[in-house]
Design goal:
Number of helices: 5
CATH architecture: 3-Layer(aba) Sandwich
Strand content: 5-15%
Largest sheet: 3 strands, parallel
Protein name: histone deacetylase
GO molecular function: histone deacetylase activity, hydrolytic mechanism
GO cellular component, one term: histone deacetylase complex
Number of domains: 1
CATH superfamily: Histone deacetylase domain
Subcellular location: Nucleus
Radius of gyration: 19 Å
Order of helices and strands: HHEHEEHH
Family: Belongs to the histone deacetylase family. HD type 2 subfamily.
Amino acid sequence: HLKDPQLCDSRFSVGTHAAARRAAGAVIHAVDRVLAGDARNAVCIVRPPGHHAGRRGLIPGSHSCGFCIFNSVMVGATHALHHSTHAVPRVAVIDFDVHHGDGSEEIARHLAAQLPPSALLVVSIHLYDPGDAFISTFYPGSGGHDSMLENVVNVPITPIWRRAGAHKMAASSRSHSSGERTAGSPRNAWGSGRLEWRSAF
């Protein structure tokens, strides 16, 4: 799925596709090494990131792919489950990030109908704030509920700005900045959206 460049923060350059393929390939190679017994474990430090990319890239209805092109972790997970020589019966993906792994969840939900009941578990631990009159929805705005039938577990964490009095601070910040900001610039309030900040720089 392609998105209007004005609505999405993810950009392509000449080397983006090759870099994303190498990132996913590194994860596949690491899985192969571990399953073959050549390595006890593996860590892949790769860019671009992946957990916001769904089955076909941008998730339908989303405004951002969070700089993700391919979901390298889910590529590795499905590779491990379908490995021609050393396939494993179960894979767990534990995602600890400030943002919900919405792309990983979309892929897991799709695979749930094709895999045995306990083959794939996806857990996402992240901040969650659906927003209100004072604070914008915290990106991506999903991950507030589990889907146990599809082995998706979300652990939403309430942000620190939701403490008592944070609404007043956010409202005060907004009122102080309203006279200074120009059209199209982001609100100076806690929880401002990803797209607002992108347009500011």
